[in-house]
Automatic annotation (TrEMBL):
PROSITE patterns the record matches: CYTC
The protein, known as: Cytochrome c domain-containing protein
Record bears the keyword Metal-binding: yes
InterPro entries xref list: Cyt_c-like_dom, Cyt_c-like_dom_sf
SUPFAM superfamilies: Cytochrome c
Residue ranges of the TM segments: none
Domain of life: Bacteria
GO molecular function list: electron transfer activity; heme binding; metal ion binding
UniProt entry keywords in alphabetical sequence: Heme, Iron, Metal-binding
Domain Cytochrome c: 37-110
């Protein structure tokens, strides 16, 4: 029974890490061209803070956030306060302007994907 549980746990762990590693090795967006400097800044920040769990805005360890229709203030709240596995990012980690840029980037990225 114990070994059975262990192998399930191991299977899940390997699955999660393999999934992350594979997705992480891919470029976030092959064709995404940020059109403003703020979006470009947001992209860099997103890659630094969010990409590991939300690769390309799609489901990874975290859920798909490209298609989350929640208004941006709710998304910002989520970043500031965290939820479940998602950590919270305080103002000394991600400033207000930086969070704004991340939001602009997420918006630009999802609109580009749709077209
Ligand atoms: C350690 C992994 C991790 C990191 C880093 C992370 N997230 Fe998350 N995120 C999650 C998980 C897990 C959830 C789902 C939380 C839940 O519902 O319990 C989530 C949920 C979200 C949601 C809500 C999605 C929904 O449909 O409910 C948004 C928006 C979001 N994250 C944005 C971000 C942004 C922006 C960043 C970077 C500043 C970020 N996340 C960094 C793991 C992460």
């Amino acid at each position: 029974m114990k070994t059975y549980l262990k192998s399930i746990a191991r299977f899940i762990c390997i699955g999660v890490f393999a999934g992350c590693a594979l997705r992480r090795s891919e470029p976030l967006v092959g064709t995404f061209e940020p059109k403003t400097t703020e979006v470009a800044k947001g992209q860099v920040l997103y890659n630094e803070y969010c990409q590991k769990c939300h690769p390309g805005g799609e489901g990874g360890l975290g859920p798909d956030i490209n298609w989350n229709p929640a208004p941006s203030f709710i998304k910002k709240f989520q970043v500031r306060h965290g939820l479940g596995v998602m950590p919270s990012f305080k103002k000394n980690e991600i400033s207000k302007d930086e969070l704004e840029a991340i939001g602009k980037y997420m918006k630009a990225y999802k609109h580009q994907k749709r077209s």
